[in-house]
Amino acid sequence: MAATDNIHPVSDRMLSRTEKQALLRQRGVVMWFSGLSGSGKSTVALALERKLHAEGILTKLLDGDNIRTGLNKNLGFSDEDRLENIRRIAEVSKLFAHTGVVVLCSFITPTHELRAIARDTIGSADIIEVFVKASFQTCESRDVKGLYAKARAGKLALFTGKDSDFEIPQTSDLVLDTEKESITESCDRAYDSVISHIRIEQ
Amino acid sequence: MAATDNIHPVSDRMLSRTEKQALLRQRGVVMWFSGLSGSGKSTVALALERKLHAEGILTKLLDGDNIRTGLNKNLGFSDEDRLENIRRIAEVSKLFAHTGVVVLCSFITPTHELRAIARDTIGSADIIEVFVKASFQTCESRDVKGLYAKARAGKLALFTGKDSDFEIPQTSDLVLDTEKESITESCDRAYDSVISHIRIEQ
Fold this sequence. Notes:
2 copies of one chain form a homodimer.
Chain A: H1 17-24, E1 29-34, H2 41-54, E2 59-63, H3 64-68, H4 79-97, E3 102-106, H5 112-122, E4 127-133, H6 136-142, H7 147-152, E5 174-177, H8 183-198
Parallel strand pairs in A: 1-3, 1-4, 2-3, 4-5
Helix pairs in contact in A: 2-8, 4-5
């Protein structure tokens, strides 16, 4: 029996997304940051979250690190598990966006296939895709988490950019080049890109 | 390699739960409704959601039906999948509660083990366990979704109450007897139980 047999969605009686957005006086949307480890995804997302919060906007930041310790702690880094990792995150993001929350997702999301899963699950009207751009060499030299050193020493399997490719996104809504602009500049550009999706005319 | 190796939680730099709750002027909490199919779980949860929303409280209703068509659409009804179903729902509920949202979960959750997974994942300070009580005979006679008829005809595998036991909760924070009280009465009692957990003194 398929999981969806004998399922009777009650959403017709549930409060609508529109009602929740009216309560919050904001629209829900997902801003999805992809890029290499060390590219600055989470740093920009964290700065953006603080900026939005200061304006009274309710946000949720989902991050490879905190999701991997909870919802997805039973997943590894095989191709199959990476697909399931992104699928679950996208489904959770959708639940938040449909509650009117502005979701900031920070995940490497290295392949076209993974980004398509995110986009198709969330729905293209509700996702803003941001590519956080920095070369492997730059990320390796930053090595904020010491992961590149571990990868060089062969202590990390399946490290993106070394053992597996990062496919450059071709259809991003926004590219943030963290080699050329400061975190503040990247944050401001991300803000400019998302704010019109959030604001509801009063 | 375990999924949690090389994970560096950024939560120290993330906005705190307290900051989000201050923005929303409410505390996040999870109210978890368990009971047989047809006991009235979702009906009470839906009524409670409308009542809370009317007071300006942001809620999220998670339901076996809508979760099974999204996040958990790759799970069936084996014992293993039922555990994973509840584990994921509890992790998602926790993400919402930590964002300050009042989460209403409506799931059969038929065993002590499943309810313990929910409680342990969410944390006992953040969960209110509600047992929605109605006998198998009553639920069968209501048969809102036509599932009991299907189960009798042998067209449903693993139907709770018929093919597998519903273990009566011994440690609920609240019992709603939908054979003896109306939906409005049950909703009001659920409201009385949760509201002090939500309100932040102004």
